[in-house]
Amino acid sequence: MEPTPPDCDPIELDPQERRVAEALRQGTAISRDVQSNLDAARTFGERIADRIASFGGSWTFILICIGTLSAWIVFNVSLGGGAFDPFPFILLNLALSMLAALQAPVILMSQNRQAARDRADAAHDYEVNLKAELEIRYLHEKLDLLRERQWADLVQMQQRQIALLERLLKEARADLHDRETDPLSDS
After folding, report:
1. Does residue 165 belong to any structural domain of this protein?
2. Which domain covers residue 14, as residue numbers?
3. Between the chain's N and C termini, which has fewer beta carbons within 10 Å?
């Protein structure tokens, strides 16, 4: 008797579990490269948002900002009263506010995409883990079935050996009885 993969009513399963059950039935792999699928489906705006967020969160960007701000301040302070943006640097504050106002939504878009990637990764991990768990259960059932068959074979073999030993014992007793009744037959 072969163990059978777990059967359940497909209506009770969500789409993810149906995919796993179908992969089990067909004996196919369920793992796939989720990241490449998501990368291929990115829009132009998403690719731009990812690049801006990647650059905006780098040390290169921070050092460029520090250098630009320092140069702006030094240049305007050195011009004194004829500076195009004298202290308190209102134009610089306006530029920084605009940069923050534009950069924040772009970073949020990129983080939303990353969260979607993380959810897709988690869903894929769940499918792979579920399939692995079901296959391990199936293997345990197979091993238990093999162990039961081995025990049955051992018991059957032991019964044959006992029957053989009983027959040999009966023959030895009969032979001993024959020797006792006919003492001349030994010679």
Report:
1. no
2. 10-138
3. C
Residue 97, domain member (yes or no):
yes
Cβ contacts of residue 120 below 8 Å, gap of 6+? 34, 38
17-38 pLDDT, tens digit per residue, is: 888 888 888 888 888 888 888 8
Residue 146 lies in a domain: no
Q: Is residue 176 part of a domain?
A: no
Hey, how many other C-beta atoms are within 10 angstroms of the C-beta on 49?
Answer: 21
Question: Are 101 and 81 spatial neighbours (Cβ–Cβ below 8 Å)?
Answer: no
Tell me: the pLDDT tens digits for 36-83? 888 888 899 889 988 998 998 899 999 999 999 999 999 999 998 889
The domain tally of the chain equals 1
Judge whether 41 and 33 are in contact, CB under 8 Å.
no
Q: Which two tokens stand for residue 176?
A: 């001993």
